[in-house]
Write a structure and sequence with these properties.
183 residues; single chain; 12 strands; 15% helix; seven-stranded antiparallel β-sheet; mainly beta; Immunoglobulin-like
Length: 183
């Protein structure tokens, strides 16, 4: 067991990351998605403490941390994708499960980069659900917990498009504007 411990630690650390991309290269079944998320709640949030989960709430396969300015840029699978969970990890692990199908986008072409808009969410994490501990047991306990859908507003911004172009000046794929659909 002692010999396995370093290997197990290495595996756990390899799984930790921001979810943010370093290049716009993709596999045939992936696309690049970017946008900006801001929060219109009762208290100011630190953007870099917000984690956005796509498509599922449990394993974090498709998740991304917002950067300091609230931008996200990540890879997602082709097809229908949705925001499924928001987490705010400051002082505690506050979260909001997003109802299935509420905030979604269809990503159809692998050779494109998708801008899904500037998303404003009315959310004050300090008044929402909180996990008392992190880990699989806590995640399983809250996986189906859904309150009322948070109000989302989606707009377009040339400054977000410019931000992405400055961040990835070597990107050659066409940027397609496909807004996050709120239902």
């Amino acid at each position: 067991m002692r010999k396995l411990l370093p290997f197990i630690c290495l595996l756990l650390l390899a799984g930790c990351g921001t979810g943010r991309i370093a290049s716009t290269e993709t596999k045939p079944h992936e696309v690049i998605v970017f946008g900006r998320m801001t929060f219109a709640g009762n208290l100011p949030l630190t953007s870099s403490k917000v984690l956005v989960h796509f498509n599922e709430r449990l394993w974090g396969k498709n998740m991304v941390w917002l950067d300091e300015e609230g931008y996200f840029y990540t890879r997602l699978p082709l097809g229908e994708n949705e925001i499924s969970l928001l987490e705010y990890r400051k002082d505690a692990d506050f979260f909001a499960n997003i109802p299935r199908g509420y905030a979604s986008v269809n990503l159809e072409e692998a050779d494109k980069i998708y801008y899904v808009g500037d998303i404003t969410v009315e959310w004050t994490p300090y008044f929402s659900a909180v996990r008392n501990n992190r880990g699989i047991a806590s995640a399983l306990a809250y996986i189906n917990y859904v309150e009322e859908a948070l109000p989302f507003t989606v707009t377009s911004s040339e400054s977000s498009l410019d931000y992405f172009k400055r961040k990835f000046p070597d990107a050659t794929k066409e940027i397609v504007v496909t807004y996050l659909k709120i239902e």
